[in-house]
Amino acid sequence: MRKDRIEKLLNKMVKNNIYQAIISSPPSLYYFLQEWFEPGERLLVLYVNTSGEVKLLVNELFTVNTVDEVNLIKYSDSEDPIKMLSSLIEKDKPLGIDGRWDAGFLLDLMENTKDLSLKHLSPIISELRMVKEAEEISLMRSSSLLNDTAMEKVIDLVSEMLPEKYLAKAIKNIFEKEGADGVSFEPIVGYGQNTSNPHHVSTNAKVKDGDVVL
Fold this sequence. Notes:
By secondary structure, the protein is α/β, with parallel strands linked by helices. Helices cover 41% and strands 12% of the residues.
C-alpha cells in the first residue's frame, strides 16, 4: 500500500468535506495499493475514511498478494457484500463515490443505507494522479523509449505486406519481446480507406503502394 498517496487523498477529502470514500476502479486501486484487480461482476472496493481506516472488501475467490497494512474483509458468494459494506459506512457523514463504480452496486447501497450524503470522488483522485511523482516520470520515460523501439520494428514489418490483423498480432508480440507487460488495448491496424474509421477492426486487407498506414 502507498501510505503517502492514501494520506494525500485523505487530506484532499478533508478539504472537500468528504469524511469517507469508496474506491473501485482497477487503475485507482492500483495507484493506492500497488496491486491490480479484475473483479469482473463481483464487488471489490477500498473503503477509507479520514479517521485513518483502510479496508479492502474482496471476494474470497481472489488472491490478494501484495497489499499490507490494509484491513482485508473477505466475503463468499453466499454472502451479501453490499450489507457488509453498508456496515462499514458512517451513515451521517458524507461519502465519496468512485465515478467508475457499477451503478447496480451503488443503487443497492443506497437501498440498504438510506439518506446517504454522496459526493463525487473521481475528480479528487484525478487531481492526485495528474501530479506525477519522480518514480512515475521515470517509468513513463522508460515506457516511451520502449514504445519507440517497438514501433521501429513494427514499421519494418509494413514492407512485408502483412494483412492488417496479422500486423496487429505482431504488434502485441513485439511489445512483449521488448519487455512490456502487455498493451493497454487491442492494437488497431488500418490501411488506406480503413484509416478513416476511428473504430476500425483490423481485417485481412493488405497494404498497397501509396496507402496510409495507421
